[in-house]
Amino acid sequence: MKLTLAFSPCPNDTFIFDAMIHHKIDTEGLEFEVFYDDVETLNHKAFNQEIDVTKLSYHAFAYAINDYALLDAGSALGYGVGPLVISLEPFDLNTLMDAGAESSDLRIGIPGRFTTANFLFSLAFPMLHDKREILFSEIENELLNRSIDLGLIIHENRFTYQEKGLHKVIDLGEFWESKTGCAIPLGGIAVKRSLSDEVKMKVNRVIRRSVEFAFENPKSGIDFIRSHAQAMDEEVMFKHIELYVNKYSLDLGEEGRRAIQLMFDTAVANGVIPGFSGSPFLTT
């Protein structure tokens, strides 16, 4: 059986999916037609039900829950992995928090409306509304060009912004952890609900098997990872992988599911996402 599969070209995703798409493990008869897109494009493809199995932001999943279920394998959750708010010049966070309405003119570069990063930013800074959607890899340059005042960065930009003379304003992961004590849910792997239960569970097993292979053979997919890593050096690639691929990528477990449910409950309570009924998780 052939399924469409979409994920980002970032090292954490290529690390996770390398073994299954290159037949290094038993895929139980499944084959995959693969698409690579930035996270906000993946979110919109899910809204349009274009892909059978897809990476998407947890924020975006709330808008796709009727059509997709979350798998236990392949997710990006963790501590110390949150998006960062950065600036061109040193920025006094206390001034920002105290300014209230006076901060409304600040121009914020975000990597997409439906990213989990934007969800967290909305919780931390509800007074800031002038948001400009920018491809995640271009946000640093927009700051350097003074086209925006603050930038919300994700992925490998966590490791590169200081080299460009930019400054951290706040780590939104630390903000979330201080408020909840939970790991921060960033992105998950969702499967179309219209597929049979047998296929959905098979996909989950294959992804877990692929993650296990990657952990046991971390250099196996290095050429594949590098080919999609935007000229990233190997040290940064593996820092990226170590940050985002962990025990939750093998299985969400009770702890991971609790963190995700808390994020959804918090988002609904704050009017960030619409309310929904039913479980977001894969159940058979």
Mean pLDDT: 90
Q: Encode the helix/strand succession as letters.
A: EHEHEHEEEHEHEHEEHEHHHHH
Biggest pleated-sheet summary:
6 strands, mixed
Number of β-strand runs: 11
Task: From the structure above, extract its key features.
single chain; about 280 residues; alpha/beta; five-stranded mixed β-sheet
Structural notes for this entry:
This protein has 284 residues and is α/β, with parallel strands linked by helices. It has twelve helices and eleven strands. It has helices at residues 11-21, 39-47, 58-61, 93-99, 116-124, 139-144, 172-180, 197-216, 222-227, 234-244, 247-250, 253-269; strands spanning 2-7, 31-36, 53-57, 68-70, 76-78, 84-87, 108-110, 131-133, 150-153, 167-171, 184-192. The strands form two sheets. Strands 1, 2, 3, 4, 5 and 11 form a six-stranded mixed sheet that branches. Strand 7, helix 5 and strand 8 (131-133) form a beta-alpha-beta unit. Helix 1 (11-21) packs across helix 8 and helix 1 (11-21) crosses helix 10. It is globular, with a radius of gyration of 18 Å. The two termini are 20 Å apart. The mean pLDDT is 90.
